[in-house]
């Protein structure tokens, strides 16, 4: 399983502090506590990052982290532009290496796993992130925004956990909720 949608409303999350010319901004735990009503989580949070996709723009296929040291999962919360976009995951084969993720200038020269040959990537799953979604970021993925306005999500990254499937199972069966 690559994602699990969570039927929860986290309330208003302000975006007026964002530079829409960039595609991301990390915010502090203090900023989150002062400006949102997000709950405490049962897993340690590594960082909070806004991801901004321009109107009719895209985030090219990539793996979060590097091919050798991947970030396993995130909780993505749609803030602006819940509909009319597609998140796509790709087959994880030998067609990936570590390099700059494009558009490089908008992503602060971030490195990640990128395809060696974009013509050889194979789609394995697609969805719309229209509600908070726990998702794999260590599997190659991309995002296309078909809206005439910016799409903004708040991505919560947790400290590495060895087994993403275990977390999905815990949250699917409510044995251990994602948040307190």
Helix % is under 10%
Strand and helix order: EEHEEEEEEEEEEH
Q: How many β-strand stretches?
A: 12
Based on CA inertia axes, which overall geometry fits? globular
Straight-line distance between termini: 24 Å
In the predicted model, the low-confidence regions spanning at least 5 consecutive residues are: none
Q: How large is the share of residues in beta strands?
A: 35-45%
Whole-angstrom Rg: 16 Å
Structural class: mainly beta
Could you give the order of strands across the largest sheet?
Answer: 1-10-5-12-3-2
Helices, by number, come to 2
Largest sheet: 6 strands, antiparallel
Mean pLDDT: 87
Name its key features.
mainly beta, about 10% helix, about 35% strand, about 180 residues, four-stranded antiparallel sheet, 2 helices
């Amino acid at each position: 399983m690559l994602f699990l949608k969570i039927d929860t409303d986290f309330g208003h999350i302000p975006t007026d502090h964002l530079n829409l010319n960039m595609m991301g901004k990390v915010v502090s735990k203090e900023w989150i506590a002062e400006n949102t009503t997000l709950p405490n989580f049962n897993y340690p949070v590594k960082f909070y990052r806004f991801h901004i996709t321009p109107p009719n723009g895209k985030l090219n296929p990539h793996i979060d982290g590097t091919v050798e040291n991947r970030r396993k999962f995130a909780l993505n919360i749609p803030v602006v532009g819940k509909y009319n976009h597609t998140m796509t995951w790709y087959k994880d084969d030998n067609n990936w290496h570590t390099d700059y993720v494009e558009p490089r200038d908008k992503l602060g020269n971030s490195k990640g796993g990128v395809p060696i040959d974009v013509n050889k990537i194979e789609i394995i799953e697609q969805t719309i992130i229209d509600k908070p979604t726990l998702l794999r970021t260590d599997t190659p993925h991309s995002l296309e925004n078909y809206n005439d306005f910016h799409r903004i999500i708040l991505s919560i990254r947790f400290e590495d956990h060895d087994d993403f499937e275990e977390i999905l199972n815990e949250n699917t069966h409510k044995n251990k909720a994602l948040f307190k």
